[in-house]
Amino acid sequence: ITGNSPEYTRLEQTLSDLYGGKAALVLGCGYMANSGILPAITEKGDLILADKLVHASIIDGIRLSTARCIRFRHNDLVQLERLLEQHHATFRQLIIVTESIFSMDGDCAPLATLQALKTKYDLKLYVDEAHAFGVCGPGGRGLAAATGTDCDILVATLGKAIASQGAFVITDGEIREFLVNRLRTLIFST
User: Around 59, how many Cα atoms within 13 Å sit in the side-chain half-sphere?
Assistant: First the structure.
């Protein structure tokens, strides 16, 4: 383990600039990001509400976390809000997890409505932009940027539209530093 390098720092600064100054963290691949973030930021007493069709890497991350998880029917906002009404006062932290553009069918999450639910229920929003980054939104920033959605955690890959390798997380500075110190898929990868 050699720590960071100037090249990664420059890449993270470029990504931060692209996303308006939010903090960026680069990882080896999207699977490492999605399978590691949820176990790092959740604990018992938290609830993850995940779209039924999220990527396998997110499902693996959910399974590794100690949080409770309920998977709602794909893009079913009625069921999701019913779950939020039922559970929002019971759990320490609620996180809605979705993809912006779903990998199998290419349909989109209703991000504007999820943003409204985030505000109404004071929860976190985790969006995987793997299939949107580089192909939609202003500057190729994805569907969240196109819809004005404020994601607490945005994950995207460099291995699809950018035709490179690796992935990144866009978040606030505090969560980024927390991930640097707690994200096992980053810490224990060389």
Answer: 8
Any idea what the Cα angle at residue 98 is, between residues 96 and 104, rounded to 5°? 160
Structure confidence by residue, pLDDT tens digits, 55-67 = 999 999 999 999 9
pLDDT band with cut points at 50, 70 and 90 for residue 3: low
The one-letter amino acid at 12: E
Which pLDDT value is given to residue 104?
A: 84
Q: How many CB atoms lie within 10 A of CB 129?
A: 27
Q: What DSSP state is assigned to residue 119?
A: H
The CA distance from 64 to 59, in Å, is 9
Active site residues: 103, 131, 160
| Strand order across the 153-157 sheet | 23-27, 167-171, 153-157, 124-128, 93-99, 46-51, 68-72
Report whether 8 contacts 26 (CB < 8 A): yes
Token couple for 2: 């050699």
